[in-house]
Amino acid sequence: MLGAPGRWSVAGQTFALQVIVAVLVVAAGLAGAFVQAQRAGDQEALARALAVARTMAATPDLIAAVQGPDPTAALQPYAMRVQQESQTDFVVVMSRDAIRWTHPDPTQIGKRFIGHTEAALAGGVVEEDYTGTLGPSARVVVPVTDRGRVVALVSVGIRKSAVGGRVRAQLPGLLLAGVVAAVLSGLGTALVARRIRRQTHGLGEQQLREMYEYYDAVLHAVTEGLIITDLDGRLRLANDEAARLLSLPADAVGRPVAELGLAAPLAAALTDDATHEDELHVTAARVLVLNRGPARWKGRLLGHVATLRDRTDLEALTGELDSARGLTEALRSQAHESANRLHTIVSLIELGHTDRAVAFATDELQVSQLLTDRVVGSVDEPALTAVLLGKAAEAHERGIAFGIEPGAHWPRDVAPTRDVVTIVGNLIDNALDAVGGEVGPPRPERHVSFDSRVEDAYAVLEVSDDGPGLPPGGVEEAFRRGWSTKDQGSAGRRGIGLALVSQTVERLGGTLEVHGPPGATFTVRLPVGPVTGDGVGHG
Questions:
Q1: How far is CA 423 from CA 146, 201, 401, in A?
Q2: Are residues 126 and 141 in the same domain?
Q3: CATH code of the domain covering residue 15
Q4: N or C terminus of the chain: which is more exposed, having fewer CB within 10 Å?
Q5: C-alpha dist (Å) from residue 355 to 266, 362, 382, 535
Q6: What letters, b where the CB count within 10 A reaches 16 and e where it falls short, cover 407-436?
Q7: What pLDDT digit, counting tens, does each position of 78-100 carry?
Q8: Range of the domain at 296
Q9: pTM for the full model?
């Protein structure tokens, strides 16, 4: 049962509106057709009357009779015969003074004609609707001429009731045509309403409006990026946050995802049929967490929906936490080593080997101070100095020889401090893991080295190791998100460090190269000069 019109579904309202419009159109069409038929009937009556009148006016016998002594006796039978044969309602022959000589009602003969004759007397034709002795009629008046002189007038008319009768005789056909048009219009309207009902799921106008308003508000308010793709891999929806995170063009909606300029791994993840959960992706400027799954409606697969979260700042904090944790581990290791050395020195003194105790302490101090002096003398950036010392301590604890090449130099303000820490920290971590995770019998000594210098307009830094190097074909894959020669670590951070390095170097306008095996050498070139922008921590 239908409720108030405001609660009808959109399909119901459309159906009702189209029915009303169809009824009005059909009614207007019938009325127009009736009026047109009536007008056509009037015109046909006038045309028929005019033809009869002109034919009579040109008849020689009529011209002779009107000039005879008794026109009525000669013309009345003739006029009645013409009236009957032409199916008109009156044929009147009159004098120039409009005195009737013939009439269907003999009592009207000799009386004055009711109507206009001035134009006919002037040689023209009178066409008019006029009410005479027989009632309203469509009539014509034409002159009867003899050698160019008007000697009489002929009027032929058809009553309006007769014209209306012929029009009414056409009315059943018009009504039948109107009914057929209404039925066809109703069927078309029903089909359209059914299609609209299916497309709008039977929702009403208010429900659709509220759904759109809330939908639009949520899309603009949600802080996560939201993307919907169809089964053909085309972008169907992207909210404001998704457009910002991915730097989408204004005309992105409706285009294939592959044509939006996204990184290849991210584009593949947005178009495949797999389900992705908390997957890290690196773009030109961000680290994003992707979740993606199928979008279904009543069991039918419509496409896929994906959410994106910006993890750039979190990755920076995580990197800083890793640096702090590494420094803490280095301090703990130094404290442990210092305690061991102190016990050794005290024991030597207690055993009476004072000279050996002094030599042992001096050697240890010289080794530690030599590395510290080399780092401090080579690097003008305090944060980078701290990273190198921390990594040196970590390498020492892991039994890896970490060295600074002689003559190494890194100037201040080449790049934002956070970016420098990201690059150096990740590269050294990768090198330490490469030599520390080797498979096979342990080697007597494993090396990782750091070098930096200024060449032309670029500051160059290199991190080298004597590990197994990259696997065949690994150079091209080394900086792809998720690539790693190590097992997956906690928090899913394996395989993202080198990707962060690549992203950071690209954003700073530099270049990155990899050489090896044997070993692996990562070379980074950055333009010399102050660079503004926020970096991301290493992972």
A1: 121, 55, 20
A2: yes
A3: 3.30.450.20
A4: N
A5: 65, 11, 37, 51
A6: ebebeeebbbebbbbbbbbbbbbbbbbbbb
A7: 889 988 888 888 888 988 888 98
A8: 222-310
A9: 0.47
